Amino acid sequence: MNRIKFHVKKGDQVEVISGNFRGSSGRILQVIPRKQQVLIEGVRIIKKHLRKSQDNPSGKIAEREGPIHISNVKLLERGEKPAAEKKKKEKETAKS
């Protein structure tokens, strides 16, 4: 099974460059590789109607982010580096 390589990953700061949400920016919450889509914080908010349940006795209209195709986003800045790389840098500075 091959892994698909994308230009963005979870936690990156991106800007939408085309489509209805052009110009808006946010942090990537999730990457959906199979559909080549991403969820961006605060962009494409959709409303989902929830039926009555024990959690929501009178029902609810929940708002959440909808997916945007990965080709419509541009990387602004990378998210934080993985913990393994941070530990290596801390050890190098401690040795100096």
Describe the structure.
Helices cover 14% and strands 38% of the residues. With 96 residues, the chain is mainly β. It has a single domain, classed as SH3 type barrels. Strands 6-3-2-1-7 form a five-stranded antiparallel beta sheet, with no helix packed on it. β2 (25-32) and β3 (37-40) form a beta hairpin. The longest helix has 13 residues, at 83-95. The N and C termini lie far apart (43 Å). The mean pLDDT is 89.
Number of domains: 1
CATH class: Mainly Beta
Q: The biggest beta sheet, please?
A: 5 strands, antiparallel
Mean pLDDT over the full residue set? 89
**Strand share of the residues?**
35-45%
Structure summary, number of beta strands: 7
Helix share, percent? 10-25%
Order of helices and strands: EEEEEEEH
Structural class: mainly beta
Number of helices: 1
Question: Can you describe this structure in just a few lines?
Answer:
By secondary structure, the protein is mainly β. The protein is built from 1 helix and 7 strands; from the N terminus they run βββββββα. The chain has a 5-stranded antiparallel β-sheet, with no helix packed on it. Strands 4-5 form a two-stranded antiparallel sheet.
